């Protein structure tokens, strides 16, 4: 019973025969469809394009060409108008879609990961191999010896200002001030 279920009920020769019949029917349908399309095209052209009769004299031919150019200009104007209408409507559609998108508020900011990166690494990532600037600014500084000036010496000699204030505070300090002045 298991083998009978797995086997198809139609034999392989019958299948191939049915496929060939289906292909023949499809081929006939395609040929008929192509013939219908060609007949429609002929009918449309005969309806919209009358047979061309060219005038024999030069002046009549020039007049005919002027009429053709006038018709071409009218068609170009219509084409330009329709193109501008289409552009305007597409712009309006884009604006409306943007407004709709904004009103929905579905734009979510992605959660950004914090990355610890030195300034050198950032510049190297941004500039690539062009990066030659060293961001360690202290390495580029020059050593300068500081010369002692007279004012600085005087300030050092005076000492801490807090001590002077404490010495002069209270009655003892005032007594010393008067004694030093006299």
Topology, please?
Elements: H1 2-6, H2 12-48, H3 58-104, H4 119-127, H5 150-158, H6 161-168, H7 170-181
Summarize this entry quickly.
With 182 residues, the chain is mainly alpha-helical.
Describe this structure as you would to a colleague:
Among the domains are: 15-51; 58-107. The chain is 70% helix and 0% strand. With 182 residues, it is an all-alpha fold. The protein starts with a helix and ends with a helix. It has seven helices and no strands.
Order of helices and strands: HHHHHHH
Oligomer: single chain
How many whole angstroms does the radius of gyration measure?
Answer: 50 Å
Average pLDDT level: 79
Distance between the termini: 137 Å
How many β-strand stretches?
A: 0
> Which ranges are low-confidence, i.e. pLDDT below 50, for 5 or more consecutive residues?
none
Q: Helix share of residues? A: 55-70%
What class do helices, strands and sheet pairing give?
mainly alpha
Shape: elongated
- How is the main sheet built? none
Number of helical regions = 7
SS strand fraction: under 5%
Which short descriptors sum up this protein?
182 residues; mainly alpha; 7 helices; elongated
């Amino acid at each position: 019973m298991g083998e009978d279920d797995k086997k198809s009920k139609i034999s392989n020769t019958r299948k191939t025969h049915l496929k060939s019949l289906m292909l023949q029917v499809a081929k006939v349908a395609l040929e008929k469809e192509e013939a219908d399309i060609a007949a429609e095209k002929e009918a449309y052209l005969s309806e919209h394009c009358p047979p061309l009769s060219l005038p024999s004299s030069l002046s009549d031919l020039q007049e005919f060409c002027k009429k053709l150019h006038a018709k071409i200009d009218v068609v170009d104007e219509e084409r330009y108008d329709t193109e501008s209408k289409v552009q305007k409507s597409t712009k309006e559609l884009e604006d409306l879609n943007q407004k709709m998108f904004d009103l929905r508020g579905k734009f979510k900011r992605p959660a950004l990961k914090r990355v610890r990166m030195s300034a050198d690494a950032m510049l190297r990532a941004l500039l690539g191999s062009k990066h030659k600037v060293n961001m360690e600014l202290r390495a580029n500084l020059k050593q300068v010896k500081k010369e002692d000036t007279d004012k600085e010496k005087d300030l050092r000699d005076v000492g801490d200002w807090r001590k002077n204030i404490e010495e002069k505070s209270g009655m003892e300090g005032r007594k010393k001030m008067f004694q030093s002045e006299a």
